[in-house]
């Protein structure tokens, strides 16, 4: 049976919230930025559902995701959380790219960004979710191989949150395997909005507190073709802090 990557992303997000206070705090900071972001993206009379695409999971999922981050919505399904995460990342990427167009390099990087935010098709969203999962797991390995204690913490949290054996096997293989930067870079080629989503998810997956992690994020962003302006905008949206540590 094929892996449902929206479910798997939701489980990874749920596991991150439950098992890593530092990563959960970073994701909560991102959530607090979304209130203003939603207002800036929506015109008069529009709803979140209108803006993120009809009955797409993102419409209800964003609220469920924010609720889970704040300690509620414990019974939220993994699929809903996955849809919410993709919707959240998509709007953050849109905002970061559009805001960068004032600068020369930012305008060049953002030339293909549409004037309005549109949600990808379900199949494209599932494909993108797989890349986001890969990026989040790579970020966890950015300062070296995942040690035994961290491996146990991650897998135990995923099991506790109901991840099935097939999904667990997939995550374990990723955790034990090599970094997949080349795969990520190839997947985002020609899609600056996905590159910004990958960068955002990588930031929210970890507590960036080592030189190795900072260097990894900067290297990843540049390899994906993101300008300094875009990376700074993403950093501000995901942490509500300055971004000078993450660009050079």
Verbal overview:
It is a single chain. The chain is an all-alpha fold and 248 residues long. Helix content is 70%, strand content 0%. The protein contains 13 helices and no strands. α1 (5-19) crosses α5. The longest helix is centred in the middle third of the chain and has 22 residues, at 78-99.
Tell me the series of helices and strands, N- to C-terminal.
Answer: HHHHHHHHHHHHH
**Mean pLDDT figure:** 76
Write down the Rg. 17 Å
Q: What does the main sheet amount to?
A: none
Secondary-structure-derived class: mainly alpha
Low-confidence parts, pLDDT < 50 over ≥5 residues? 44-59, 103-111, 241-248
Question: What tags apply to this protein structure?
Answer:
248 residues, single chain
């Amino acid at each position: 049976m094929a892996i449902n990557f929206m479910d798997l992303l939701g489980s990874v997000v749920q596991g991150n919230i439950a098992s890593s206070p530092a990563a959960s705090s970073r994701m909560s900071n991102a959530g607090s930025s979304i209130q203003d972001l939603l207002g800036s993206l929506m015109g008069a009379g529009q709803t979140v559902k209108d803006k993120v695409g009809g009955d797409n999971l993102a419409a209800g999922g964003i609220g469920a995701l924010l609720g889970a981050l704040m300690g509620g919505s414990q019974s939220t399904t993994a699929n809903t959380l996955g849809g919410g995460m993709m919707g959240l990342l998509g709007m953050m990427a849109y905002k970061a790219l559009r805001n960068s167009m004032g600068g020369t390099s930012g305008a060049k990087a953002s030339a293909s960004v549409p004037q309005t935010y549109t949600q990808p098709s379900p199949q494209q969203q599932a494909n993108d979710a797989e890349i986001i999962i890969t990026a989040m797991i790579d970020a966890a390995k950015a300062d070296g191989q995942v040690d035994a204690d961290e491996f146990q913490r991650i897998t135990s949290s995923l099991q506790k949150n109901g991840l099935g054996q097939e999904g667990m096997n997939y995550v374990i293989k990723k955790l034990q395997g090599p970094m997949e930067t080349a795969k990520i870079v190839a997947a985002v080629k020609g899609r600056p909005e996905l590159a910004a989503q990958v960068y955002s998810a990588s930031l929210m997956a970890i507590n960036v507190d080592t030189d190795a992690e900072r260097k990894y994020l900067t290297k990843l962003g540049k390899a994906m073709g993101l300008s300094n302006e875009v990376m700074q905008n993403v950093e501000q949206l995901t942490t509500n802090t300055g971004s000078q540590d993450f660009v050079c």
